[in-house]
Amino acid sequence: MHGVLSAPFQPADAGSSIERDMDDSPGFVLGLALMGLIGGVVLFARGLVAYRRDRLISAVATSSLDGLAAGEVRVSGLVQAVDQLLTSPIQSRPCVWYRARIESTDDSRRVFLDEERAVHFRITDGRGQIRVAPTGARWEIGTDFDESTSLTGAEPPGLERRRGASYDMVLPDDPEDMTDAQRQAAIEALLAVGPPAPLDAADGAGAGSLLGGTLGTSGGRRYREARMEVGETVTIVGQAVPWADVRQQLEAMGGGGNVDRAIADDIADAREAGELAASPEEAWGNAAIPGFGIGRPTRPPELDPDAQTPPPAKPTDHEVAMDRYQIPADDLVLARAPGGTLAIYPGTPQVATQQHDLAFLLGLVGAVMAVFCTLALGAALTGTL
Asked: Is the N end or the C end of the chain the one with fewer CB atoms within 10 Å?
């Protein structure tokens, strides 16, 4: 009969499903609150670190380089090369510092290269200049290159792996200070054109081996490189100390002069293992010849019979080069003193002081998020949610 009323249709397990969702909701909220609490604490911790570093650079006034006194200083200026330049391994750019890393993008996360190097450099503000010994520095420099291979395995645009040595000698700034041989060598190097080297050699000897191991051609790779080049503006917070004190610290680390930490560590390990040679000639061979390291040996080196023998340099050329490398003991150098810090930032002091602002704001957001997540976590645990 049409007048018969029937109960609305309802699946047999609908009520139990709703009850299960309600029973599971505290656990779901508990998980979200826990993840939010952890994330908030991490953001808050990073914000505190950013705040401390921001106060470090803000607490010291910028000093002019023409009237610098010993002690803690904040200086800013343009980067200039002193006697050496580095060649970055991923983009082959001349620089005074780089940090490079190459790793696979698969689950293995195999690291092919993880390298950081720096050489002494100079900064100038137009009125004065000072040498920077960057051993132990904290580099607040962002990444210049961060790319990965494509899905088809093609290398990213801008990748230009280093083919030769990581160091290069800096010729005199004034062409009048160059010898005829140096000037001719610079011209020949500029005009020389060689065949392009393959990106990946089949036997692993080529570009891949120059970057700290065989890269191979299978699997994806991620390339990251940060660097500081000549001509960039930087702000540095550190200690202005006499070169004699800085040299003593470097020698205590296992080397003196313009030596980077990787070389100093190798020397220290060799000395501890008793593997150091008895003389420079025994250890280095041709490299022990005065002037050999700057391409101007003062006597003919021992070469392969088929090699072209370059003419030896005059002793006066070596003396001129040594004058460029030697630093008066009482000259002030910007360095990291024991118990102090040496922080290097990109840009002017205004840009440097703003660098940590975003991280600090995110830290405040993290603190608020951690408070709310703590309240939600307590409500979920006590069943009052």
From this structure: N
